[in-house]
Design a protein that fits this description.
Number of helices: 10
CATH architecture of the largest domain: 3-Layer(aba) Sandwich
Number of strands: 10
Radius of gyration: 20 Å
Oligomer: single chain
Number of domains: 2
Largest sheet: 6 strands, mixed
CATH superfamily of the largest domain: P-loop containing nucleotide triphosphate hydrolases
Shape: globular
Mean pLDDT: 88
Order of helices and strands: EEEHEEHEHHHEHEEEHHHH
Distance between the termini: 33 Å
């Protein structure tokens, strides 16, 4: 079942002659996890904000955007706010309360949800995220990774069908980034949340997504499975977007391994059994 689609979407900012998004066409099925990648300035953030009506930039928009079976303009204010979640790059840009407990409850209070239900839903999501120990903390005392988990948890209390994330790990250290991506994987697999995530570094997400949307100059240059996207990147000299393991095999085979486990299996299939341990360790650290 299709939950989101863009058909010939184009957008340019007010007072700009150039299009930030042009001829963007793709569709997403319910429950899929999509990675959005491309060079800086390719239109990733603009596209995500166009999908969240309240955050849409001012400018000239054309084409069709359909969300949950409705044209974007036909969604009620509550449907758009409640069922389409958005997590920004910087958690400080979207937190509005001083206390973690207040932040987690803020969205539900805004929708007029009863106190008992707020407590139940906040408690359930805090347990899912493992942030109960942070409940009574001041947000200002949290680490960057903890703040981002609180921001994501706050969005998830409204039970969105679609979750949009704009480079959510850009300001996190590697450990915090992996923790956040692990939570997103669980949200997708265990709760069936449709996820579209723009990433500055696709390394950690490449082989865990259903599909990858590659943008160049605001256009949909490629949209397909990780395996097909990897092949496209090699054929078009875009190896910089590949995981380290795939880069190592880029000139050796067509069906590229996308992680260390697949790389080991590929080497064995190619008859390579004497693998330098240091080389494997270097690749694993890179991933």
């Amino acid at each position: 079942m299709e939950i989101l689609s863009c058909e010939n979407v184009a957008f340019k900012y007010n007072e700009s002659t150039d299009y930030a998004i042009s001829d963007c066409t793709f569709s997403v099925k319910k429950g899929e996890k999509i990675m959005l990648c491309g060079a800086s300035g390719s239109g990733k953030s603009t596209l995500l904000r166009l999908l969240k009506r309240e955050l849409s930039p001012r400018g000239e928009l054309s084409g069709d955007i359909t969300l949950m079976g409705k044209d974007r303009s036909e969604l009620s204010d509550r449907e758009s706010a409640e069922k389409i979640g958005f997590v920004m790059q910087s958690p400080d840009s979207q937190t509005v309360c001083d206390k973690v407990s207040a932040e987690l409850a803020f969205g539900l209070e805004s929708f007029g949800v009863k106190s008992g239900e707020i407590q139940s839903r906040v408690g359930e999501m805090a347990a899912f995220f493992g942030i109960e120990p942070l409940y009574d903390r001041d947000i200002s005392t949290l680490s960057g990774g903890q703040k981002q988990l609180v921001a994501l948890c706050s969005v998830m209390t409204t039970d969105p069908d679609i979750l949009l994330l704009d480079e959510p790990t850009a300001q996190l250290d590697p450990v915090a980034a992996r923790e956040l991506l692990g939570i997103l994987d669980r949200l997708n697999k265990e709760m069936g949340v449709t996820i579209i995530i723009a990433e500055h570094d696709p390394e950690e997400l490449f082989d865990s997504c259903d599909k990858i949307l590659y943008l160049a100059n605001g256009k949909t240059e490629f949209f397909g499975t990780p395996a097909l996207t990897a092949k496209y990147f090699v054929e078009n000299a875009l190896e910089g977007f590949l995981p380290e393991t795939a880069k190592a095999f880029a000139r050796l085979c067509d069906d590229l391994p996308l992680n260390v486990r697949q790389g080991r299996a590929k080497l064995e299939k190619l008859g390579v059994t004497d693998i330098p341990k240091q080389a494997v360790n270097d690749t694993e650290r890179a991933e």
